Amino acid sequence: MRDRQDALETELSRQVDRLIRERSPSRGRPGSSLEDRAYSAALAVRSLREPAPPRKHYSTHLRRTVGTPLATVKLQAGLVRWAVIVVVLAVAAGGVLFALSFRPNPAEKFLTLMEATARDPVAAGITGYTGVLFDSCRNQEFEVFYLAPDKWFVRGRDGNEYAGRNGGRTWSFHRDPVYAEVRDSGASPPDSYWEQWFPNGLGNVVAGLLGPTRVIQSRGQGTLQVFAASPEVRLGPRGVIAGRPARALLRLSNLTLGDDRTHWVDESSGLLLECEGVGLDGADSHIGYVSLDLTPPADLSVFEPVFPEGTVVTRVQAGALGELAARVGISVREPVGLPANWTLGLPTLSIREEPPDGDKAPVALWRLAWSYRPEGGILSQLPELPGYWFLVKGAWLEVEVTNASPQDLGPGEPVELGPGVKGVFLSGGGPYSQRTLSWSVGGLRYRLCSDAGVPGSEGLSLEFLAEAARSMLAGD
Amino acid sequence: MTATFRVAGACQSRGRRRLGRPPLLERALNGDRDALEEICQATWRALYSFVYWRVQNREDAEDITQETYARLLRAAPRVETRDGALLGLLRTIALNLTRDGWRRAEVRGPVVPLEQAERVPHSPGDDEAARSAQRLTVRAALDRLPNEQRMVVELRLLEGFSIRETARITRKTEAAVRSLQYRGLQKLGDLLNDESGGDGLAR
To answer: Domains of chain B: which residue ranges?
Structure first.
């Protein structure tokens, strides 16, 4: 009963937060007449104040947008005349856009501020803070702690998930399924899910805003990342988020595939306060601060990785391939015959100390992994979007060697790789899916994994994978 | 652009009251972009203000205002109204949009047929009088709330403070602030409902 009451109070509070920020009520607001009456009362109280004016240039936008359906009507009535007008307008618009391209973008001021805060948070006045983030996708609040320059910690209210960084080291924990990981310096991805909420991650946020639109398409078992060019960042309306004056940065692209999000940025510090948008599934989503206190946290112990007792922790380290292989007592050969512009990514070694199982001694399971990617990517067209060209960076080759379940190659098509070495090839089918080739030698399991390319781009065939595997086996 | 359109009553003053589509709307439907721009230019501020008063947030107010013009064009072929009633018609469309669940699942009130556009008051004086009356009612109801509830409601909705900031100002926990806000708004809703004879607020 108390839980339900808490949920109602929290939900009403969220709706009030949205009103304060001049936002429409979210979909999940209470529907009973009682809560509806409370919400109506909130609207009534708000009516005591002066209304917020519309965004700057709203009237221009309105006149332009409202005219659109009208143009369609006229096109049907007089196609030729309108076609001429459209051509003239297009030429004029092109001229205007050309002229505008030389004008400074007002959004740049905020992007510069964000980059300055990322470089030196203390100089930007950020020594530390605590706050609460709400993630609508998970419908959960997360406590946030930050201490300049590079310590942060995020913890779900339910205690089932947390992540942190202390200098170069990062860690994360999920309770269901249980997974705990500590990454040493160099092995920590700079663009983790949580990083954007801290000064360290703002550089990546800016790069993401200015960089090409990223569209992640799932096809079959595989995932393809498509990068489309020509995004634009515009200054949006003002608002108040977590009690702080904020400005919206609108990222516009020439696509209708989604992934365009509005970033709300703190006007004085450049911190990211909220991120909202429509996902590829069409659902609205937002994650952002519901409270933020720019006072360093009192309890510094949160910046040390601590896991529930008995948790098996995976430790990840990065380094040179030969050096990492030597740590687990093996030597590996890199595949040969890869395209000339493919480069080696940072190899990582993950080690998990399994607890004793009955009479069996404790064992360390490890996984050595590295990858190759083309430097520039591949220009391609997708059949469902024939009007656009994309820079596709989905082509890659990953290599994995592990001592876990060495004989378990899984289902697939048998492939002869050499004397006494049989491999298994598995393709997800379809143009976007992954292809894997696995084999077992010397008590270790090897796996090559690639994407199958997209129409018009280079895909990695079974023959290619088999040759790469044989080159790694040469001399064994 | 020739400035031939005037809001509410310009044509009446020339004694041309007649039923049928207003000439400006007629021109807009025939593809006269100037006419459409004139309609927008002359009416959008009043319309935005009208919508904002009902939804109390800029995002909805902007979207509903825009959608109102789009619906006007779609509905115009079947609308019969007097020359000076265009703003009234726009308000009726906007009112329907706010009531028929714009971005919300539930229905918040009866939908008014477009043909009854003139029943919606559209004199600026009427609007202002209604708003003043409502403000007085709301102010009086707020004053009847217990002090703590009133303070939390005012800090949140009038001053725009977050839950945490409100908690700090009132020296209470965030949970207590949420609870006070909830009970305060419930109580306020009851008071306003009683005041309006059970019909809720005039929205």
So the answer is: 12-120, 126-195
